[in-house]
Amino acid sequence: MVGLCGTVGEHTPHPAAFADSVRWRDGEVTETFTDDDLSLSTAFHPLLAGDQPARTHDRDALVWVWGDVYGTGSGDAYVAREGPSDGSARYCADLYDRFGLDFVTELNGDFGLVIYDREAETLSFVTDRVATRPFFYTRPTAETVVVASEQQALLEHPAVEPDLELDYLYEYLQLRRVFGIETPLSDVQEVPPGSVATVDLTDGSVSVTTYWRPHYEPVDESFESYVDRFADTFQTVLDEWTRDDLEYGVLLSGGSDSRLVQAAMDQSVTAYHIADWMSREATIAREAAEVAGDEFRLLQRGPDYDAEALERNPPRSNFSGWFDQAYFTGFADEIADEVDVLVSGLYADMLFGGGPLATRELSLGPIGKLPLPVRDPIESVDEYVSMQTTDAVEPLSYVTEERSIRDVVASNITVEHDRVVSHGVDYGSLRDLVMYGDFYPMGADTDANFSRSLMHMRPYRTPFLDNRLLDLQQQIPIEFLLRRDLVNRGVERLAPELAEIPHARTGMPLKHGFPLDFVGGTVAGFWRKHVTEEAPPADYLDHGPWPDRRALLRTQSFPAETLVERRALMEDLPFLDYEGALESYRNHVRGADESTVLYSLLTFLQMPVAEAVGDVDDETDGREPADHLVNDD
């Protein structure tokens, strides 16, 4: 794991257990800095660490960078950072000397900055545009501030009393994420995305200034113009990022997002694909690797992989996704031994495929539903809340206090003079909330565990979150996001040979235009579902990279065993009901779909915060076997 933690005021220097909470692997560069009433402990990848903190020349200030800074400026004035991979802190210290904190407004990268200004007696925490690397903070006393890059690391600080905000925990249980900057940990908030949180070291007060928020303002240009701009920008980003002396690993799916990364890379990479068997998607990914001249590495999970992930991943959870969504952690050592940098195509669908937009469906009766590339407009906060909570399971049988997820979400959204604030984050307008509320900040994404687990293994980048692509996305008309395919066209533009390979989901080569791709993919989907498809080797597997969670809950024993093992904990937590948890599980086994609330519960029960609040030491209590307790009466 990489990250940092810090204490201002009392309890400095902080204990070793708190410093160790942000350290994971051997080989990380770890340091603890102490000065007066300040302690800061860091753990960084050697490739990026450099000589930190970097000292300014003209100001009495120190700068740390967790992650990487790519450059500064916008548009034609953008200037890429030159110099070594580990030079981000020196780069930012020089900019701070010249411009003060204003320099962060134009900064591009995947970073969390810490700036300790001795002269001003301030300590500032700076997030990038979407807070890819988060800071969570709490004020246990008026003079004390405790900060950590992971929520559960805060529990290792002696001044932090573990407790839970049940509304936000309920939001996580129902929706597998908490929106905005709120957290289920009492009195703990996240530093907002695109913001600077400054601690006044004289009194412990915290002030927050937001320097960037997304604003959707489409520009009327031709689709081909956007294809040109998109492909050129994407290629520029990858050209600036890659170095001949480093080995790169690309997380390669059978789709188009990671294939675009392949297309823009100017060197061979190791193409990692995770799967339980050589599915249709794995076969397509292997073909793409062979055509590109890349080494294909199938990371084959075994039947116990998910059970082991439930033991391994929840201690690092920030309540953003489930335990299994830190998909690659079981192969962390293998990946770290083989490559220097990881690259993925994550957030392509969210940004350039209309991911957050509600679309319409056509019911075909017993055959199923046909999704249509037509937007279903969201014109009020009530409609937005309804869209976000439509699949909720209520009443939730394992929660003792009856709650409404609609009420919980709605009570955290306010509208004043057309400005919309959701869970502590100002989105400016309802349209901006709809467009960006699912990943601004990144912790609001239901799959944030995926990205954040990758950055702990190796220096990690996803090009779609580069400032230049974020700026471009805010100009693209919605009809192009829903009824065209910029990513496919980008692959065709940068590597036509890769565009000849079918998409694993649609079965259509990427080179085809949207109408043919949509019709062909729809026909292929119905054919596989209702006519023929190679049977996977297990009931819970399919032809995608991830197991079918609904089937996995019904066919594997570890979910039931975990509920039984955590019985004493659930009985000690007044807001959870053990018998209700078994009822939820039984309902699912009988055919209902309660996979969301069960996966959320399983993840929570294995988090350190659950034990800290419940104060139960023994996980098992010798009661009857799981199969007896969860079978039908």
Features of this protein?
single chain; 633 residues; alpha+beta; Glutamine Phosphoribosylpyrophosphate, subunit 1, domain 1; Rossmann fold; 7-stranded antiparallel β-sheet; 6-stranded antiparallel β-sheet; 35% helix
Layout of secondary structure:
Blueprint: E1 3-8, H1 16-20, E2 29-35, E3 38-44, H2 46-49, E4 54-55, E5 61-72, E6 79-80, H3 88-99, E7 107-117, E8 122-127, E9 136-141, E10 144-148, H4 166-175, E11 188-190, E12 195-200, E13 206-210, H5 223-241, E14 248-251, H6 257-264, E15 270-275, H7 280-292, E16 295-300, H8 305-312, H9 332-338, E17 341-343, H10 348-352, E18 359-363, E19 369-375, H11 381-389, H12 405-410, E20 413-416, E21 419-422, E22 425-426, H13 430-436, H14 448-457, E23 460-461, H15 467-473, H16 478-483, H17 486-494, H18 496-499, H19 514-530, H20 549-555, H21 558-565, H22 567-572, H23 578-589, H24 595-605, H25 608-614, H26 626-630
Parallel strand pairs: 14-15, 14-17, 15-16, 17-23
Antiparallel strand pairs: 1-3, 1-10, 2-3, 4-5, 5-6, 5-7, 7-8, 8-12, 9-10, 9-11, 12-13, 18-19, 20-21, 21-22
